Amino acid sequence: MATEAEADALATVAECAPVTMERKVKSDLENFLPKPYMARALTAPDAEYPSGTPGHKNYGMSVLQQHVAFFDQDDNGIIYPWETYTGLRAIGFNMIASLIMAIGINAGLSYTTLPGWIPSPFLPIYIHNIHKSKHGSDSGTYDTEGRYMPVNLENMFSKYAKTVPDKLTLGELWNMTEGNRVAFDLFGGIASKLEWALLYVLARDEEGFLSKEAVRRVFDGSLFEYCAKAHMGYEGKMS
């Protein structure tokens, strides 16, 4: 029988911190996913898909690089605003929304990814430096080098999916972004809310839920490929 010290060593709830009871974390992940705490450089696994997205090729890119690679229309490692616009149109956003988002995304991410210090008026995003654009107040599912942290994806849903397991409502997404918000991080807090709002618009189901599978697949970029095929009339099921 475990001693009190052993039990305390593995406790996930602290009596004097009610938030740890409210936002529970999973303690059995290793039964479903090998080393869930280990950052993955090439794949985005979870408990249901321990090897990542079936059929999705990584091409030697980090998971964060894969996340944005869909928008690199000419595969030259640089994403310009017109390429972002084309990608957004391909996954189903209208012209006005795509134009506004393309300008906002490239304006927000370009400078930190540049190879030098001089800004470019063309707002290019260099994929090999995309890890430098990671902002605060996020979910922590990407680490600072662009690897993917499976445990943080799983904990995202164990903490905030109160209505349906492994699915988030719009209100629960708001609660999650509030829970992740870092003090005095205005840019990161706003960016996080906008990113999750756009994902909700793109990938919510008929009942208004955002599934864990959709979230997992946006991290490795395969969701964008799926949405582009669906927008072109391809009949298939997200797997």
Q: Would you summarize the structure shown here?
A:
This protein has about 240 residues and is mostly helical. The protein has helices at about 5-10, 20, 65-70, 80-90, 95-115, 150-160, 170-180, 185-205, 210-220, 220-230, and strands spanning about 80, 125, 165-170, 210.
Task: List key phrases describing it.
two-stranded antiparallel sheet; 239 residues; mainly alpha
Shape, please? globular
Oligomer: single chain
Structural class, please? mainly alpha
What is the alpha-carbon Rg in Å?
19 Å
Tell me the total number of β-strands: 4
Pattern of helices and strands = HHHEHHEHEHHEHH
Largest sheet, order of strands side by side? 1-2
The largest sheet is: 2 strands, antiparallel
Average pLDDT reading:
95
| Individual helix count | 10
**Low-pLDDT regions:** 235-239
Give the percentage of residues in beta strands: under 5%
Helix content: 40-55%
Amino- and carboxy-terminal Cα gap: 42 Å
Topology record:
Blueprint: H1 4-9, H2 18-22, H3 63-69, E1 78-79, H4 81-90, H5 95-113, E2 125-126, H6 150-160, E3 167-168, H7 170-180, H8 186-203, E4 210-211, H9 212-219, H10 222-231
Antiparallel strand pairs: 1-2, 3-4
Helix pairs in contact: 4-5, 7-8
What features would you describe in this structure?
The protein is globular, with a radius of gyration of 19 Å. α4 crosses α5 (95-113) and α7 runs antiparallel to α8 (186-203). Helices cover 44% and strands 3% of the residues. By secondary structure, it is mainly alpha-helical. The longest helix has 19 residues, at 95-113.
